[in-house]
Design a protein that fits this description.
The structure holds two protein chains of two kinds. By secondary structure, chain A is an all-alpha fold. Chain A has one domain: Orthogonal Bundle (ABC transporter involved in vitamin B12 uptake, BtuC). In chain A, 72% of the residues lie in helices and 3% in strands. Chain A contains 16 helices and four strands. In chain A, a hairpin with a 2-residue loop joins strand 2 (175-177) and strand 3. The longest helix of chain A is centred in the last third of the chain and has 27 residues, at 224-250. The model of chain A has no long low-confidence stretch (mean pLDDT 89). By secondary structure, chain B is of the alpha/beta class. Chain B folds into two domains: 2-130 and 267-313, 3-Layer(aba) Sandwich (Rossmann fold); 133-264, Response regulator (Rossmann fold). In chain B, 45% of the residues lie in helices and 20% in strands. Chain B contains eleven helices and 14 strands. Chain B has helices spanning 2-25, 39-55, 70-82, 99-107, 133-146, 164-175, 195-208, 220-232, 247-256, 267-283, 323-326; strands at 27-32, 58-63, 87-90, 111-115, 126-129, 152-158, 183-190, 212-217, 240-243, 261-264, 293-295, 301-303, 309-311, 316-319. Chain B has a six-stranded parallel β-sheet, sandwiched between helices. In chain B, strands 7-6-8-9 form a four-stranded parallel β-sheet, with helices on both faces. Chain B has a two-stranded antiparallel sheet with strand order 10-14. In chain B, strand 3, helix 4 (99-107) and strand 4 (111-115) form a beta-alpha-beta unit. The radius of gyration of chain B is 23 Å and the shape is elongated. Chain B starts with a helix and ends with a helix.
């Protein structure tokens, strides 16, 4: 028997999945969402003469960049079966801490470090309560949502911190090249990092495993509590980073900063195809969802659609994108 | 008949086209409010539309965020900059947070003014206050004195002892007391802007000064509580409650007669004036600089102080004749 013959028999095709990778890609959530994004882009270009303009599109990215930074970490957290509703309040507290440091006369590096460290500490606080005391994360973070912002209100009252150094404005108002903003660049770098971490590392596999079955994950030797704690830290850190960007963009701090942003972040994650029950989802999905939300709000803004109608559209979009594949499946089955 | 319909349709389409062409050259003024769905701002939008139809070649874009957040307003302003509107008139949710975005708007040649709730000086060309402290101080005593041609005793029911606005208005009122001979302020009490405490203080005033003719409450909480106290004490007709209040909350007091009149800024006039100012600044026939006067149509002129802000007018007086029109607005 020649070598070629052996190879031929060994090459007999035994399918290890029901659909081919190509077909799976086409049927995936991400491609559906990408179609929606392209559709919205085309609709917007026809609806308003101001849409296809590099500077306007660049301004539009501010509608989602800060939220998306948090959404990446939130996606991992939700995939692992937990949630953090305190992110917007972490932004407020980080921003307040940065204001205190700024007033004490420190420069931009110290201000930025303070923002990030405050976020990290808030994340650690949530993480300890959830993983050490075994409390449900939704309860813990609803509590810290009031707690963190409450501290900001105590420090600031109805006042404001203003007068951040001009170099500090770079984060939220600066451009890297041409129309590419600093925030958009941070967003892009984070997207790559999170995609690699979630999809190409053991840590990422552990996150999925925990979300699907935490008990099974424990018995497979995954240190479940530690992974969850790290995810809370990450989410806190991202909120701190978003706080640096937002504070820099606004050039001032008020305790009401970023109010209500937590729900927009969760919306972005869910729209990106992450199961709210945990266990599934992807970073590319979240990236596309960020663009979809940014394009929808900006496009409607150009048409001067009132904000109330805009939130109805975003809500309908969310339900529609989630319900359509389910309805399609049911139809095919019957 | 069919021909006629066709002709009419063609005419209608043609008019539509012409209207479309005309509106392309219209000046677009954006009225940005703290949040949509608030009666006060809906009324301001009405005023802006009134100014637009008076001017003729103006299109009003009435817009704002869903919640009263600075971030929401920035998104709205960004989309207005993208549309290259001619002017933005904003009632700001945050004095400072809007500055970077509004600066960008001004750099792109957009006229930016603030009204009602102002923006820091570097973020706007001028700010329109609904009224000024001297005008308010004078108005609250005038409202009481007008009902007392023979003179009489009045008392002030304020908010807290440390309320900056109320203290300034009372100071301004005391400065002009000489213009109202025979009217005497017998006491100033503080209800802390709490309904129950204000009520008790008002009742106390009527017991301590049996001949009291009027209670002046320059606070929207105090004026409602005082009116209730007068009704409960059976002194309607003897003690007149006046000051600053909201039409929606004061409608009952006007009906019962406990209050003959009160004042507050008129949002319709405010929206109207802001639009007029934005129009003239954008058109270039007025400039925003300290000491300058800018025309505001039927509201006269506004004169700017050294911070480029100006006061629109006296607070607007509400009484039995007009309360019905305003009580549903704010």
């Amino acid at each position: 028997m020649s070598l070629a013959e052996t190879q031929q028999t060994a090459a007999r095709h035994i399918p290890d999945r029901l659909t081919t990778p190509l077909a799976r890609t086409f049927k995936s959530w991400e491609s559906l969402l990408l179609l929606v994004a392209i559709g919205i882009f085309i609709l917007n270009s026809f609806a308003s003469p101001y849409f296809l303009n590099a500077w306007n599109l660049s301004d539009a990215t501010f509608n989602f960049t800060e939220k998306a930074m948090i959404a990446f970490a939130m996606a991992l957290l939700i995939i692992a079966g937990e949630i953090d509703l305190s992110v917007a309040s972490i932004i407020a507290l980080s921003s307040t801490a940065m204001g205190v440091v700024m007033q004490a006369g420190f420069g931009t590096p110290a201000i930025v470090a303070t923002g990030l460290v405050t976020g990290l500490l808030c994340g650690a606080f949530n993480g300890v309560l959830v993983t050490r005391l075994g409390l449900p994360s939704i309860v813990v973070t609803i509590g810290t949502m009031s707690l963190f912002r409450g501290i900001s209100y105590i420090v600031l009252g109805d006042g404001a911190f203003r007068g951040y150094p001009s170099e500090f404005a770079w984060f939220g108002q600066g451009y890297v090249v041409w129309v590419i903003t600093v925030e958009l660049t941070i967003f892009a770098i984070l997207a790559v990092i999170y995609a690699v971490v979630l999809h190409k590392t053991n840590f990422g596999r552990a996150v999925y495993a925990i979300g699907n079955n935490a008990t099974a994950a424990t018995f497979s030797g995954i240190r479940v509590e530690r992974v969850k704690f790290i995810l809370f830290l990450l989410t806190g850190l991202m909120a701190g980073l978003a706080s640096v960007c937002l504070t820099s963009r606004l050039g001032s701090t008020r305790p009401s900063i970023a109010s209500g942003m937590e729900l927009e972040v969760v919306t972005m994650v869910v729209l990106g195809g992450v199961s709210i029950l945990g266990g599934s989802g992807s970073i590319p999905g979240v990236v596309i969802a960020a663009f979809v939300m940014g394009l929808v709000t900006f496009g409607l803004g150009l048409l001067n659609v009132p904000g109330i109608v805009m939130s109805i559209v975003v809500g309908a979009l969310l339900i529609g994108v989630i319900a359509l594949p389910r309805i399609y499946q049911n139809l095919r089955r019957s | 008949m069919k021909k006629l319909t066709k002709l009419l349709t063609t005419a209608a389409i043609a008019t539509g086209l012409f209207a479309g062409a005309a509106s392309a050259e219209d000046m677009r003024i954006a009225l940005v409010v703290k949040a949509l769905g608030i009666g006060f701002f809906e009324a301001a939008a009405k005023g802006a539309e009134e100014a637009a139809s008076e001017l003729g070649d103006v299109e009003i874009i009435y817009t704002g965020p869903t919640d009263t957040t600075a971030e929401g307003q920035i998104e709205v302003i960004n989309s207005l900059i993208a549309q290259n509107v001619d002017a933005i008139a904003v009632s700001a949710n945050d004095t400072d947070a809007l500055v970077p975005t509004l600066k960008k708007a001004m750099q792109r040649g957009i006229t930016v003014i603030s009204w009602d709730s102002g923006v820091a000086e570097e973020g706007r060309q001028m700010h329109l206050n609904p009224s000024s402290n001297p005008l308010i101080g004078n108005m609250i005593i005038k409202l009481a004195a007008d009902e007392l041609p023979e003179g009489g005793q009045v008392a002030v029911l304020s908010a807290t002892t440390t309320s900056t606005n109320q203290n300034i208005w009372i100071d301004e009122m005391n400065k002009v007391m000489s213009n109202y001979p025979g009217v005497e302020v017998v006491a100033t009490v503080y209800g802390d802007d709490l309904a129950d405490k204000s009520y008790r203080e008002a009742t106390g005033l009527m017991q301590s000064y049996p001949d009291l003719d009027a209670i002046i409450a320059p606070t929207s909480v105090g004026i409602v509580a005082a009116a209730q106290a007068v009704v409960d004490a059976g002194k309607v007709g003897q003690v007149n409650v006046t000051g600053l209040g909201l039409p929606s909350e004061m409608a009952g007091a006007i009906e019962s007669g406990a209050s003959k009149s009160f004042a507050i800024w008129n949002p319709i006039d405010l929206g109207y004036s802001a639009t007029m100012i934005a129009y003239h600044l954008s058109k270039g026939d007025a400039v925003a600089e300290p000491g300058a006067s800018i025309p505001m149509g039927r509201m006269g002129e506004v004169t700017l102080d050294e911070t480029n802000s100006g006061a629109m007018a006296d607070p607007f007086v509400y009484d039995a004749s007009n309360i019905a029109d305003f009580k549903d607005i704010f």
